[in-house]
Design brief:
Layout (H helix, E strand, L loop, with lengths): L16 H28 L3 H13 L15 H24 L10
Length: 109
């Protein structure tokens, strides 16, 4: 058996331009999501101080950084309703796309 060594710049080792575009698109999607999620923290908090307390708790993975905060709990019915809603949304978007005959993709363009 012969083994072939490829240089780091050879076409066999480099990702294709399509793969690079896909990776860049995924990175852009994730970055946009996280920036928007971070902006929502400041949008929804009553003051900058509360936003800072929330972010400190998020970074430290603590829920008790605000003395007046109460723990968030969900009943089994609420969890089941949320799961059912997510399933319905996926079916309403995914099923028509799969039946359309077009290329079936998870992320719409």
């Amino acid at each position: 058996m012969s083994t072939t060594r490829h240089s780091p710049d050879s076409p066999a080792r480099r990702p294709s331009s399509g793969m690079r575009r896909g990776m860049l698109r995924l990175f852009s999607l994730l970055l946009t999501f996280h920036v928007v999620a971070l902006a929502w923290i400041f949008f929804r908090c009553e003051s900058l101080e509360k936003a800072q307390v929330f972010l400190r708790g998020l970074v430290a993975w603590q829920t008790d950084t605000d003395p007046g905060a109460r723990p968030v709990t969900f009943s089994r019915t609420e969890i089941d309703a949320a799961i059912l809603l997510i399933i319905q949304l996926v079916v309403c978007v995914d099923l028509p796309q799969a039946r359309s005959g077009h290329k079936h993709e998870v992320v719409l363009r």
